[in-house]
Design a protein that fits this description.
Blueprint (H helix, E strand, L loop, with lengths): L2 H21 L4 H8 L2 H17 L2 H8 L3 H8 L2 H29 L4 H9 L1 H19 L18
């Protein structure tokens, strides 16, 4: 399998998880799927394979004492860039899962934060933190805020 194929498959692999969390957050199937760590194990396995196969002595040295120019040269290689991208996919999905579960637990609206996390992980995390703070401030209690997500029905239809 080529690096491009691995890259494309990894990109497609994460989409159903994002779709479930964003479009059908209260569906029992979504909740069951998002309980599992298997998607992360699969993606992390691909990451491990690419990471190990892209490390050369020069790359290892550059990564052990990172300098911007060395990192730029490292990511100029297709295999290294695919490795970095899959790193983003794993971590963004993991943070997205955390946001999803926080929304399920507290009732805070998460669709906007999940959409941001899908496209720009740290911005989605920041969005969720701000949403949590705002919801907590306006809920009038020191306990977890409760804001229901009405965008989808609980039956998933």
């Amino acid at each position: 399998m080529t690096i491009s194929q691995i890259f494309n498959i990894a990109n497609i692999f994460v989409l159903p998880f994002w779709a479930l969390m964003i479009l059908l957050p209260n569906w029992k199937v979504t909740q069951r799927v998002m309980e599992s760590y298997l998607p992360f194990v699969a993606l992390a396995g691909v990451y491990l394979y690419l990471f190990l196969s892209s490390i050369t002595p020069e790359n290892a040295q550059a990564l052990s004492n990172p300098q911007l120019a060395d990192i730029a040269r490292f990511f100029a290689d297709e295999k290294a860039a695919a490795t970095g991208w899959i790193h983003f996919l794993v971590m963004d999905l993991f943070i997205g899962r955390w946001i999803y579960w926080e929304g399920q637990k507290t009732g805070i609206w998460t669709i906007h934060s999940l959409a941001l996390c899908l496209f720009a992980g740290p911005l989605g995390l920041l969005s969720h933190i701000f949403t949590y703070w705002i919801a907590k401030r306006f809920s009038g209690s020191s306990d977890e805020p409760v804001i229901t997500e009405k965008a989808t029905s609980s039956s998933g239809t």
